[in-house]
Amino acid sequence: MQTLSIAIQKGGSGKTTTAINLAAALQLLGERILLIDIDPQANMTQALGFTEDIEPTMYQLLRCVADGEEVNLNGYIKVSASGLPLIPASLDLAAAEMELVSVYGRESLLAGLLPSVTPQYDIVIIDCPPSIGILTVNALVASDAVLMPLQAEFLPMKGLESFMRSMKTIQVRLNRRLQLLGIVLTRYDERKEMNQRLTKTLIERFGDKVFSTKIRTNIALAKAQEKGLDIFKFDRRSNGAIDYAALADELYQKLKKE
User: Fold this and answer.
1) What is the pTM of this model?
2) I need a labelling partner for 30 at 20 to 30 A (CA). Which of 84, 119, 159, 178 fits?
3) Which domains does the chain have, with CATH numbers?
4) pLDDT averaged over the chain?
């Protein structure tokens, strides 16, 4: 089983959109996917059609583990209308940042749970908060690799640079197997010179870690989330579906090389 965090220290970069639609594309390729929402904003949970009062969520799960209780992870998994299994989040997760501060081994709570679902899933995809706190650290400690969506503008580059420093610290101190799988540009418009210059800058710095596939600006992606669906269930002929299918193919090849 591979565990992949979708993370970057910047909001609005397309993390949730990428997590949902990449998962759906990989599922279409025959992979058994589990989604985990560990973001207190619960955007992925809501975008997959679940209401804010859904229970149990990642908050109850982390609290039970922190209290030393035995947990059956399967009891927390919900299946969305898209057919994607999800461990949902809720606004209560914001409290976890404070409540887990004094818990022994707090950085590894999630990592200790995932082996129990290893036989059931091929890939676990975690949607992280846009900041480096205990929730994101839990996701990164549990992960084999990180995929970073980056809005195709220069300002979000600062979030990328900050996140890379934090990721390096986690690699050294908490999870030596953690790798950068790649950077994917989102909201991309090849007609914009700024987008072209950013792509060149990223390739010069990160080389083949920059995915060839770019996610173009596409209103269908937002409309799909309004309906609680992935882009393939909403409109598989849209540019969004075409781009995420291509990203899944490229990612699948990278995973096989790891």
Assistant:
1) 0.94
2) 178
3) 2-257 (3.40.50.300)
4) 90
